Amino acid sequence: MNKPEHWDSSYDLGIIAIDEQHQELISIAEDLAKKAISKETTFEEIKIRFDALLGYTKYHLGMEEYVMQQSNFGDYDAHKAEHDKFVNDIQSLRLQLKQHNVFIAKTAAQLLQIWLIKHIQVIDKSFVDFLLKKYPNIQANDLLQHAYDDLVLNS
Ligand SMILES: [Fe+2]
Ligand SMILES: [Fe+2]
């Protein structure tokens, strides 16, 4: 698990499984932004990081959506719509990514960071607060921790 360079304690929502995934996401975005600025970076290196970012984003959002459904979270539709819009934005940037087009990579990394921080502090926070009201912290953490196994084993 990578630690991001820029992390504020206000981004920690109180369930370790979610906080760790948010840290990983921000750290992937930071890595992409750093690579996009460097002149020595090849197009291939940017593409690899861009796909890592897209892959981990989908993974994390999928976990949240799964647990939202399992826990009967009332604001599921609105939260899912935010996720879907974000994935679409990243995917359309990925399609625009042309050779040596570091601008796209930088834009995507910035977009991810800004969106994520806002999303974590407002939208994810309300979901985590709901979970912590409904379950003891350990149980809420277990739900998220095991969401991947459930998703894979039941698919
Ligand atoms: Fe999240
Ligand atoms: Fe979310």
Number of strands: 0
DSSP summary: helix tally: 6
Bound molecules: fe (ii) ion
Strand content: under 5%
Poorly predicted tracts of residues = none
Structural class: mainly alpha
By CATH, the topology is: Four Helix Bundle (Hemerythrin (Met), subunit A)
Overall helicity: over 70%
What is the gyration radius calculated from CA atoms? Answer: 16 Å
Largest sheet: none
In CATH terms, what is the architecture? Up-down Bundle
Shape: elongated
Alpha-carbon distance between the two ends: 26 Å
CATH class: Mainly Alpha
Order of helices and strands: HHHHHH
Overall mean pLDDT score?
89
For the record, what is the CATH homologous superfamily label?
Answer: Hemerythrin-like
Q: How many individual domains?
A: 1
Features:
binds fe (ii) ion, single chain, Four Helix Bundle (Hemerythrin (Met), subunit A), about 0% strand, mainly alpha, about 160 residues
